[in-house]
Amino acid sequence: MTETPRSNLVREIYLAGARGQTPPLxxxxxxxxxxxxxxxxxxxxxxxxxxxxxxxxxxxxxxAFKRWLLLPRMLRGTARRDLSVPLLGQRLPVPVxxxxxxxxxxxxxxxxxxxxxxxxxxxxxxxxxxxxxxSMEDVAAAAEPGSDAPADGAPMPRWFQLYWPADRAVAExxxxxxxxxxxxxxxxxxxxPTFGYRPADLDHGYLPFLNGAGIANFTSDPAFRAxxxxxxxxxxxxxxxxxxxxxxVLNWDHLPWLRELTSLPILLKGILHPxxxxxxxxxGADGVVVSNHGGRQLDGxxxxxxALPAVRAAVGRSVPVLFDSGVRTGSDLVKALALxxxxxxxxxxxxxxxxxxxRDGVAHVLRCLLAExxxxxxxTGCASVGDLTRxxxxxxxxxxxxxxxxxxxxxxxxxxxxxxxxxxLI
Length: 426
Ligand SMILES: Cc1cc2nc3c(=O)[nH]c(=O)nc-3n(C[C@H](O)[C@H](O)[C@H](O)COP(=O)(O)O)c2cc1C
Fold this sequence. Notes:
By secondary structure, the protein is an alpha/beta fold. The protein contains 17 helices and twelve strands.
C-alpha cells in the first residue's frame, strides 16, 4: 500500500484552491477530449479520438459502462484502501497500466518519452507500442528513475506491445531488443491485421506513420534496416515500413514460434470471444486483454465490457485477464475490475493529457484517475481491489426483495421488463 492515499489529491486541490490556485487541467476525466480538441490540430485530434466507421463500437463501449451501476455497502470502516494487485508474479502498485498507443508525437513533441515519465511520476506502469515515435531503448532510458524522480521512485514494470511484422527477422529482432532493454512482458495485439476504416483519418488523408511519426522502432532496427535500399530516403523508408509493419496472414499457427522465441510472458490483446481466449492459453499465452481497440478497428463490434464476463468465465479465476476500451473514470475502472478484469489499460484520456500538458498532463490525468478509484473503493465499502466482486454491481431497475413485501410476498416490479428482479442484482 502506498504511504499517501491516492485520494489525498482531492484534499491538495481544495487546499490549493484556498490559496487561489485551481488545477491546470480538467479533473473531469470525460472532459479531456474536448479540452484536447481545442489545442490540437484537427488531424491530430482526429487521429487520437477517431473511431472506426460510424463510431458505433466506440459509443457501445461507453454505453456498456452506463448499464452497470455500483451498489455501495455502508459502515465498513474502510479508512485506507489497498490499490495494489498481483499480476504475472509481481505486485503492481495500482490496477492500471498505460495502454499501448502509437505515434504519440502526433499530440506532443515529447511523445512516449513524456508519457513514460508522467506514468513513472505517479507510479503507473506502461505498455509501449511497436508504433512508438521514440525507440524502445530511448523510452526505457527515459522511464528509469533519475535525478528528477521522486525520492521513492522505484522502477515501474514496463511492457512491450508487439505488432507482429510481416518479416520474421524483424519480429525476432523487436522481441530480442525488448528483452535486452528491460521490458518484462509482451502484449501481442491480434485485432489489427490491417488498419480499420477510420473516417477521421481518411477525411484528413492523414496516417502519421507516413509522416515519420511512430516508426522509430523500425528505423532503429538492424533487421529492418537490412531490408532498405542503399541511400534510402524518407519516402522509401515509409514504403518499406508499409510492407513490413503489419502481417495480414497472421494466424494461430504462428503463435508457437513466438512462444518458443521468448520466455517473457505473452498476453494476447484484442480478445472478445471466449473460445479465442481459451485457444490463446492452449497455445502458450500467459493471459489475455479483452479489448476492441477502443472501437478503432471493427465498427459494429460488441462493447468490450460486454465480452469481459464471458472471457473471465472461460479462462477461470487464475489467468490474467486485462481489459480496455471505454474506461474514462475511476468508477468505470472499478466496474471493469468487478466484472472480472485483473488490471485495466488506460487509453485515450492519458493521450489527451499528453497533448494538453506533456509529462505533467499525463501525470495529472493519472493522479485524478487513481484518486477517483481510491474514493470509489471507499464509498463502495471496499478496503482493497481484491474486495471488488459482482456483489458491488447492479443493473438498472428495482433491486430484488429478499423478504415478504407489504405482506403480499410479491417482488417489486422491475423498471425494465426485459430484466427480471432475480438478475437485476448481480
Ligand atoms: C491513437 C491511438 C493509437 C493506438 N495505438 C495502438 C497500438 O499501437 N497498439 C495497440 O495494441 N493498441 C493501440 N491503440 C489501442 C489502445 O491500446 C486501447 O486498446 C484503446 O485506446 C482503448 O480504448 P479507449 O482509449 O477508448 O479506452 C491505440 C489507441 C489510440 C487511441
